[in-house]
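Order emerges. As here.
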Amino acid sequence: MNRSWTTALTLAFAAGLATLAAPQPVDAQGTKAQPVGVKVDGNIEFPQLSPDGTQIAYEVNFPAEKRRELYIVGWDGRAITGAAAKLVPESMDSPSRYGATKRVTHGFAWASKGTYAYAYTVSDSSGAQDIYIDNWSKLVEEGNSANKNPAWDPNEPRFVFSSGRTGNGDLYLWDSGEPMQLTFDDTNAELFPVWDASGQKVAYVRAGKAGSHIYLLDVAMFTAQALVQFTGTESTRPSFSPDGNRLAFFSNKGQTSSTNFGLWVTDARPGGTPRQIGPNVRLPSKGAAYWTPDGKGVIAVKDAPDEGDPICIFPVDGGSPNCLLSAGTRNNRDPQLSVQGSTWRLLYTAQQAVGSSDSTWQEMYSYDIPR
């Protein structure tokens, strides 16, 4: 491995959740997205709710300084609580390999189970990347290699991560001891791992000269099989459906430019037929696309600057996307979906609200999807 995420959504309810309805011209609830209230002189990226919904972790990109920082702030479901805390590993809060402005923190991931709260990546000026785990005394590191993309098992206090310690890069499993190597590929890099709900399978990206493809790893058996192999194209950022039977991913297959991506779904087993459900979407700054809780839709940002790059829900089994223009924000990025009782709530970033004065920085917003 070199060092080198129209109109409001309306869901019809009769005896439960029905299929996604066609876009409606007016937001039935008449609500707008609400600014969360975190303001910094930098771009807020990739907000993530803690598993219990009481905290938000987010990354701040300071482009002029070529620096990134991580923060955690309290969250009561509607607004932030208390002051934001910058994440700095106590062992690195001094002039050292990670001291002063040479330290960059990024790639945050909440833990799901056990005594650990989270993990994230710490980089130094040479490009070396190590993983810091809250409530653990050491770093996951290996020389000057890149160790990143921690993805926690939803059922166990362990995570899979990418490491360049073997040269091109492989996947490793950390469970409080010495990391165990899971993939053995001499020519490609394994990136963006994500677990299924059972904690038995990991989907990931195998990247090399022939393009980037989606693979599925059986963690117990140490066996991997290809799910998506589009020759000479990039397929990336997989995410499992709630039931684990499907995968969403991004691919530039069929796009006019290698930097343009569509949203695709495929069966989470070899032999499936990938289908594009969104022809032109934006990659999230980190992570992957989110599924709706019923598994009928995938949330991503439509690549449409004239429409403000709206957040849309793309039906998995066909039909037009429901684009949330009524949210009232522009240049939207990194949407994630949480369930608050019967409410589907988005947390995302946007550069400004429609009709407001120009804003320099990406800020954080929340929005309740009308249903």
Notes: DSSP finds no helices and 32 strands in the chain.
